[in-house]
Amino acid sequence: MKVALEVTFRMGGVSYRGYRWEGSALVFEFERLGDAFIQVLSTRRVEVEVDRSPEKVLVELRTKEGRKVFEAFERDGVYLAAER
After folding, report:
1. Cα 59 from Cα 28, distance rounded (Å)
2. What are phi and psi of 15, to 5 degrees?
3. Which of 50, 1, 44 lies closest to 21 in space, CA to CA?
4. Which residues are 61's β-sheet partners?
5. CA atoms of 72 and 55, how far apart (whole Å)
6. Per-residue H/E/C for the chain
7. What is the CA 83 to chain-centroid distance, rounded?
8. What is each CA distance from 49 to 53, 65, 68, 71, 83, in whole angstroms?
9. CA-to-CA distance for 59 and 57, rounded, in angstroms?
10. pLDDT value at position 36?
């Protein structure tokens, strides 16, 4: 099955690193490393093929300051999330 994620970040410079399962949750991994970034909203769309349906979809963002995790919600077959 295909899982599509659309996530909006508060700054540019975000790279997609892959995904992993944590139990029944599908975790999409992103990172923003460095010192200066454009202060503009940026949206990334990722689609992955998985063998089972996730109970929830999480977005993990790694930065120099640490790690943020936020949950996506499903609308019309696409999971949506936004960095807080």
Report:
1. 5
2. -115, 140
3. 50
4. 30, 68
5. 11
6. CEEEEEEEECCCCCEEEEEEEECCEEEEEEEECCCCCCCCCEEEEEEEECCCCCCEEEEEEEECCEEEEEEEEEECCEEEEECC
7. 9
8. 10, 31, 24, 19, 24
9. 7
10. 63
The pLDDT value given to residue 37? 65
Query: What local confidence, expressed as pLDDT, does residue 26 receive?
Result: 98
- Cα Rg of the chain (Å, integer): 13
- pLDDT by residue, tens only, the chain of 84 residues: 999 999 999 888 899 999 999 999 999 999 998 776 667 888 999 999 999 999 999 999 999 889 999 999 999 999 999 998
Residue among 13, 47, 49, 48 nearest 30 (CA): 13
Q: Which of 74, 73, 1, 3 is nearest to 45 (CA)?
A: 3
